Amino acid sequence: MSLPILTGAADWPQMLLARAANGAVADIEVAEAKGAWAAFKKATTELTPEVVLHTITESGLRGRGGAGYPTGSKWRDCVAQADPVHYVVANGFEADPGAQVDRVLMELDPHAVVEGTAIAAWVVGAEAAIIAVSSAAPLAAERLRVAVEEAEERGYIGRGADGRRLEIEVREVTGSFVVGEETVLLRALEGKRAQPDQRPPYPTREGLWGKPTVVNNVKTLAAVPWIVANGAGAYTSLGSAQTPGTTLVQLGGAVGTPGIVEVPLGATVREILDGPGGSAKKKFKAVLVGGPTGGFLPSNALDTPFNYEALRQAGAVGGSGTLLALDESACLVDVATLMTRYLSYSACGKTIPCRIGIKRLAELGTASCSGHVRPSDAQLLNELATDIRDAALCGLEADAGNPLLSVMRYFAPEFEAHSLRGECPAGVCQPISLAGAVSS
Amino acid sequence: MSAAATPAPHGVSLTGKIILGLLAIVVAGALGFFLLWVTGLGSALVEWTVDTGEANIEILRFVAAATGVLLFTIPAAFVIIYMELKIIAQMNMRVGPDRTGPFGALASLMAGLKVLSKEDYTPRGVDVPVYTLAPAVTFLASVLTLLVIPFAPGMAGYYMELGLLYFFAASGLGVVGLMMAGWSSFNKYSLLGGIRAAAAVISYELPLILGTFGVVLLAGAFGPADTSPLNLGQIVENQAGWVWNWYAFQQPLALIIFFIAATAEAGRTPFDYTEADSELVAGFATEYSGMRFGFFFFAEYVNVFILSALTVTLFLGGYHLGVDIDPILGFFGVTTPLEMSSIDPGSLGPWLLAIPLMVPPVLTLAFGGLLWMVKSGWGIIKSLVVGFLLANLLVGALFTFWALFSFEALLGVLVFFGKSFGLVALFVMMRATYPRVRIDQMMNFAWKWLMPAALLNIFITAGAIIIIKEYLS
Amino acid sequence: MRTERIPGLAIFKGLAFAIRQVFRPNLTVRYPEEQNPISPRHRGRLILLYDEAGALKCETCFQCAQACPIECIDMGGVDTRDRYHVHWGASEQYAERREESALRRSGRPVPDRSFDAYEPIDLGPLDEILAAGRYKPANALAMLEGAQGVYGHLPVAALQHIAHQTGANYAELYGLATSYPHLHFEPPVGHVVRVCRCTSCTLLGGGRVLDAFREHLGTDVGGVSPDGSVRLGVTECGGASVGSAYVEIDGEPLPKSSPEDAATIAAALRANVPQGEAA
User: Among A172-181, B26-35, B318-327, C212-221, which range has the highest average pLDDT?
Assistant: First the structure.
């Protein structure tokens, strides 16, 4: 069941979901009528790869996968490699189990994703591209495959397209949380055990099958055609000055209207929740920003602008782009522990701080919920989180300490109520066992 | 775990092949014999063989002796290798070979087989005829000397009047073998090793030979006048009787010099320059592998045996027990020479009757008890049964030997081998105990100490002989 | 020293010392009849450690088995990931091996269950799969998925056959398979109930639903009900949960889940037991 698309504030630009405002545009006829594939034709006929690369760099497009790395730099790095074989991988895996942002995008506007991948492959000089989709999103995979076939019929991709070969394959990948990370996804595509690799060397130097590979989130790639068509300047005018552009955010939990909305980077969390979220009058206890590796923002921190740096300052992450609002009926320590436990299950096991450290964090969380904490546990939690961040090979599990840390930082009274007095203000945790929570 | 079933074995199994082969041989042999017998060729052939044999009995005897000696050396070498492994292990508080064969007895045999199974190659650049012949010459040098050593009264390969001279001449061939090996290997380090080895062997030959002069002088002065004092059989006979007749007590310095020089001649620690693995890999034998190296290896162990055999012959009474057994036998009512036919059970005293009755149970208990103690898995009954069988085997072998030869021969052989292997064990224990000396220290010792000592010994012996002959008799 | 004053005495003293060693007891340990005692802290033996809370530290990430150069590690026992078993470790911890553990402590011979999986299977279909993958270890994932398609799960014999034919390590294949949740090592038996554990579903009461199923099915996550008819597992909803936690019965999502329904559903599943395929 897909979440509905919400309308944002009046002055919010519609870029990613522009074509799909009134429903899915799966058919290529309809899509082209709305402007799909125009950018690709323009780029391949009138422009050169260097020009397009320059445009992307100038636009300031940053990766929407959560890390926010400038896309232009990534593509430039790949182009600069001496190896003639390059690959492009579109990461539509969507690791966050509760998020469906990427999936909805791929279902509603598959052509945007395919076109973005095609342009990226053309710029970077790749002859093969893979769009990786989670096997839990069969509809998205199906629509993408149809889109690819239609584009091949039109001659945009496939053999003989513009003198170059470009094969796009839609691959369904099964895996756990960590497969969303770029090196893990590459290993999974190669059919190996899904574990991250040490970076550097980055995938732009050694990626899929050891060749230079560009891995971008589907949201990033979906923005590329728009930028090529409308120019870098138009893009920089969207969003805020340091972080131009828009992204997709999923609202859930105790909001008035759960759904997905396109948000300019820079809008504050409160604006997002009040406006499209329909929660103008509601009082939240906390908002979980970014999925399992995100952090909790208290209600007085909701004016944080939704961009990577500001969120990280506040102790959360952009991550999968989910905002989960929690009201007084939820126990934050309980939820934080749940997510830490989920991360512990999903750890691939390659590094010791992840494998055992996150398990320890989960145990600390469980101990907090049941009131069996020791005085040194707070410091231990900090140290563990720091160690995990330092040692983790993948960006996903590096932030494993965020839930508990943000609870400790912003909701210290609640934390202390659990640890010192064995009480749960929300009435969720019982001193003996966690009720309403998943036990291990 | 494979899906495909293993194909059914076809062809003849190993047992089948052996049986078929034997059958073929037997049938062919039977057919041949039948043909020969029928046509009368067989009897003619036999007659001719007997005639030529009788005509050339000496040569035949020599050839038989040489073959026997050759056949003897290999098992002897194996036994010595086994002794070395086990004794050194025990001195190191280890067990040594334990698993191959009972008590690891087959370990040396397996080592020999391993050496035999290696690839036989000739390195490029070597002098092929010399390279090929060097191991043979070295081995020959050791084996030829065995011909003259008396194992028992009336049992020597060949009685030579100049036995001792022949012995040293033959063992001197070993140096030639070393030099051939060192030179023909296309390797300057092998050459250096060969030269070093040759220098050491030659340096110690002088004290070795000079050490024996004392014995020769004594044998010549006090032995029977008609035989040459170089006759080893005669030297042993001179030491008959009680243990103080042995030349060891009359020539103690010579024994020491001879033993030390023999250690160096055999290339044993503390003088094992050829085996100085940490210095020259395998010295002159670096380029040898497989059975070629095996020959050098065997030659060394045979050398050890013959030098201890020579020591026993010259100094330690040869095959004599050191005890005059005639009075002892007289006590039992038996006279020498002790033939099997001369033992009349009816005339035997009670003691002599008791021995055959006691020996089997004692031997059985001894063997059985030993087996039971050491083979922890065997029960007492099984140990006793196997002990009984082994005892029978031993007694049977002894009696067969007695029947074929004589009682003195049996005793002589046992005594001789006991003493020889005792000295071999001493060589082995010295290997386990002493560090290696430097080559210059070794040469120093040979020229500056042993040779003067040997000369001094000759001087003293000669002087003593003159004094005794002139003034004391 | 006396040995230095009398020349040659050292030689005999040395020899005497060496000969004396012959009569001292041997130090050789005749393995395997005798064995050296191993201290409890010995680090050469693989055991799983516990932490101060009494929980097993092993995360069952299977990296040790994948890395083992002689492929001597296998895993069996119930684990939270619903996929595979942890063999070595204190079997007392896992209820399913409590009897076996008691039997071992009694000294009676116990059949080693680690060999249960090595049942012979028909390896014919695997040859097509191997040929399609061109016998290359790089295509291992596709071949394993094919094998699971044929057998319903990944029997050990199949993994060994693939390992032999492609030249990949058995441990590599096992490590690869354990990293993907859609590959199973247990034969699909009976019905399977899967509950999502993502944040949204949990906030919608998923934990209580899971607890209810655990109680009524009589097993934990990753296990089978005592009569062997229903398995309990986990899944990911992908955001598909609206209103109540996401629960799948044999791959079909329930429109609405609640702890109260768990009892009836469990009873219904147990009563109706065809051999269904896993989702």
Answer: B26-35
Question: What is the fold, at CATH topology level, of the domain defined by C191-271?
Answer: Glutaredoxin (3.40.30)
CB atoms within 10 A of CB B45: 11
User: Phi/psi at C192 (nearest 5 deg)?
Assistant: -135, 130
Which strands make up the sheet holding C230-235, listed edge to edge?
A: C230-235, C191-196, C247-249, C252-253
- Whether B95 sits inside 8 A of C22 (CB atoms) is no
Q: How far is C149 from chain B (nearest CA, A)?
A: 19
What is residue B350's predicted lDDT score, i.e. its pLDDT?
63
pLDDT band for A280, please (50, 70, 90 cuts): low
Return the domain boundaries, chain C.
Answer: 56-186, 191-271
Contacts of C268 (CB under 8 A, 6+ apart): none
DSSP B328: H
Using the beta-carbon criterion (under 8 Å), do A190 and C138 form an inter-chain contact? Answer: yes
As given in the structure block, the two tokens for residue A211 are: 């060749």
Q: What is the DSSP letter of A350?
A: S
Q: What percent of chain C clears pLDDT 90, i.e. is strictly above it?
A: 3
Domain definitions of chain A by residue range: 19-236, 246-326, 332-421
Q: Is the peptide bond before B270 cis (omega within 30 degrees of 0)?
A: yes
Find chain A residues with C-beta within 8 A of C142's C-beta: 191
Of the candidates C61, C210, C239, which has its C-beta nearest A3's C-beta? C239
Q: Which residue of C has its CA nearest to B426?
A: C15
Report pLDDT digits (tens) over B187-227: 888 888 888 888 889 999 999 999 999 999 999 888 887 88
Check whether B3 has a pLDDT greater than 70.
Answer: no
CA A203 to chain centre: 18
The class level of CATH for A246-326 reads alpha beta
CA dihedral A232, A233, A237, A242 (to 10 degrees): 70
Residues across chain A:
440
Task: Kindly indicate whether the domain formed by A332-421 is annotated with CATH number 1.20.1440.230.
Answer: yes
One CATH from 3.40.50.11540, 3.30.360.10, 3.30.420.40, 1.10.3490.10 for A19-236: 3.40.50.11540
- CA-CA-CA-CA torsion for B159, B164, B165, B169, nearest 10 degrees? 100
At residue C196, φ and ψ (nearest 5 deg) are -85, 145
Instruction: Tell me C53's DSSP state.
Output: T
HSE value, Cβ hemisphere, 13 Å, CA-based, for C210: 28
CB contact under 8 A, A349 and C59: yes
C114-157 pLDDT, tens per residue?
A: 445 456 678 788 889 999 888 888 888 889 999 999 988 888 78
Confidence check: pLDDT of B457 > 90: yes
Residue in A48, A435, A40 with CA at minimum distance from that of residue A222: A40
Crossing angle of the two packed helices A412-421 and A402-410, in degrees rounded to 10: 100
| pLDDT score for C90 | 38
Beta bridge partners of C248: C194, C253
A215: β partners: A89
**Distance of alpha carbon B200 from alpha carbon B178, whole angstroms:** 11
Q: Per residue in C44-77, pLDDT tens?
A: 555 566 666 666 677 667 777 677 766 656 555 4
Which of A119-133, A355-369, B441-455 shows the lowest mean pLDDT across its residues?
A355-369
The CA distance from C250 to C189, in Å, is 11
> Which residues, including other chains, have CB under 8 Å from residue C39's CB and lie 6 or more apart?
none
A26-61 residue pLDDT tens: 788 888 888 888 888 888 888 899 999 999 999 989
Over its C-alpha atoms, chain B yields an Rg (Å, rounded) of 27
CA separation for the pair A51, A228 (Å, rounded): 10
A439 and C179: CB-CB below 8 Å? Answer: no
Residue pLDDT, tens place only, C198-211: 777 877 777 778 88
